Amino acid sequence: MSKQLELPESFVRFLEANGIDPSIYNEGDSLPRYVRLKPGFEDVVQEIESEINCKMEQLNWLPGFYSIPPHVHIARSKAYQQGKMYGIDAASGAAVSALGISPGDHVLDLCAAPGAKLCMMLDLLGDKGTATGVDVARHRLSACRTMLQKYGLGERSRLFLADGTTFSLPPTTNLPCGSCDEETFKQWTSRRPYKERKQVAKTRNNFVLPHDAHPEIVFYGHNSGVLVDAECTHDGSIKHIQKFEQWGWTTLERRVLDAERTDTNLTALQLNLLRNGFRLLKQGGILVYSTCSLTHAQNEDVVDEFLAESSSAELQEIEMAKDWPCRSGRTPKTVRFDPSTSATSGLFVARIKKMAPEKNVL
Question: Is 205 exposed, middle or buried (0-12, 13-18, 19+ CB in 10 A)?
Fold first, then answer.
């Protein structure tokens, strides 16, 4: 039987104001955990099952994913320590799948930390293509770098400490890490505000993973896929909310329920992340917008506002979602995962294609 979680009144009011049933937070103890096997390690399933002493149930709707009982931890298993599998919620895996990544693509994760989705993106790329990860938090990006290195995925990836709402890159030429030559870099930064120049300098020195030069990496609207898993109130992440019982509910109020943060500031941030991600997408490319919030304000409302202002953005049906354990969002063609429907964390997913801009008709 699931434990009854005593939620603080302030959080209950937030849920009620957004039409969210507080009882979903009592389902956390019954939700399975999910892991993804690295490609090529499918034959070690029985070995892992023996080590963690439980059955791994393969998901028939999401390749490479397995569910395990909620009480089972994988951190001490050899398969985890040796980089053969990693934990990632199935709903997050679905959001990455919606990008339709193919080998050779250049993809961007605009809110990359802690790194599991970026790892999956790189797995889908195989031996061709590159992935760029961006995050505004230094400590989280550091953890992301550690994860990429653990799973041997640093060779085709780059990490940048930057604000996802303004992130952009100078043209790449012949230096490692996808950066530009010194003269081009100086010319480019001389035209940027001081704060941005300082940020770019930190990026070059501290947070780009070492790898061979990739002169074919392109910028300013040439990414074939962009994932914007935007900062949100995390109210759909049931296990995350449960942790506040140990961390303290006042921490929840500070991090999640601050009125200024959950009103216009947060949705403005989400919209600006979406705008910049779309700007960095090439024509014909796919952007996936997602959050782990269950509210309409942070999901459908953001997508609807963006679509209304962008004539070259086309909201697309997620064809593979016909096989997913999800439901339709309020905006047609969007989908939602939630604990009751999907046995996953809550997640909203929208797939947007960048079309040719409309020509003016005289």
Answer: exposed
Render pLDDT for 300-350 as a digit per residue (tens, 0 to 9). 999 999 999 999 999 999 999 999 999 999 999 999 999 999 999 999 999
Does the CA dihedral 279-117-342-244 come out positive or negative? negative
- Pick the catalytic residue: 144, 177, 180, 292? 292
Q: Measured between alpha carbons, how far is 336 from 321 in angstroms, rounded to an integer? A: 10
How far apart, in whole angstroms, are the C-alpha atoms of residue 194 and residue 314?
A: 36
Pairwise CA distance, residues 342 & 334, whole Å = 15
**Active site annotation includes 292:** yes
DSSP 287: E
Q: Report the distance separating Cα 335 and Cα 327, nearest Å.
A: 6
Q: Are 212 and 176 in contact (CB under 8 A)?
A: yes
State the angle between helix axes of 90-97 and 116-125 in degrees (0 to 180), rounded to the nearest 10: 40
In single-letter form, the type of residue at position 337 comes to F
| pTM listed for this prediction | 0.86
* Residues that constitute the known binding site for S-adenosyl-L-methionine: 135, 163, 229
Q: Determine contact, residues 227/109, Cβ cutoff 8 Å.
A: yes
